[in-house]
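Deliverable D2.4 — example input (structure tokens):
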């Protein structure tokens, strides 16, 4: 299926979802869903596409472009928890608006790496002696904390400046 409207219709029919619940899940108006189905809208922004795909249980890549399979192994699980999805959407907005610097991206990456390793920036992993912890490969937690605070402030400012809009 080459057209977004065809993919939307097929996914809605396959999932049994109606326009109003899809609009609610995708955080758009019912009118926007109608425009998707009629072909007036040719592309969806990334965050809206992900929300719509999750609501219909289809692959976001397939929904956006028609590439790949309609259903993938990943579509059985949501892309993120409801608590994390707004953070992902805010990060996508920052990136698309070019309001995030490479330094800020690096700070986020360091912070996420630390969380994924279940350690803090300046603490060794459980069962690892402090002398074995690669301190030369990490930065002081105060520096990372300041960067995270700066990023959080910038995200908050962007959120206030660009309050979430209903998009098509």
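Example output (designed residues):
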């Amino acid at each position: 299926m080459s057209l977004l409207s065809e993919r939307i219709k097929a996914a809605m029919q396959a999932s049994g979802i109606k326009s109003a619940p899809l609009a609610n899940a995708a955080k758009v108006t019912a009118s926007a869903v109608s425009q998707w189905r009629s072909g007036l809208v040719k592309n969806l922004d990334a965050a809206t596409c992900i929300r719509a795909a999750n609501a219909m249980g289809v692959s976001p890549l397939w929904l956006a472009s028609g590439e790949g399979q309609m259903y993938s192994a990943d579509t059985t699980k949501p892309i993120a928890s409801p608590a994390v999805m707004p953070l992902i959407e805010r990060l996508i907005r920052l990136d698309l608006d070019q309001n995030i610097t490479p330094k800020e991206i690096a700070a986020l990456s360091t912070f996420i790496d630390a969380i994924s390793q279940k350690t803090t920036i300046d603490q060794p992993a459980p069962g690892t002696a402090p002398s074995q912890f690669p301190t030369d490969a990490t930065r002081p937690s105060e520096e990372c904390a300041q960067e995270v605070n700066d990023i959080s402030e910038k995200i908050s400012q962007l959120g206030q400046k660009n309050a979430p809009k209903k998009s098509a």
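Confidence is low (pLDDT under 50) at residues 128-139.
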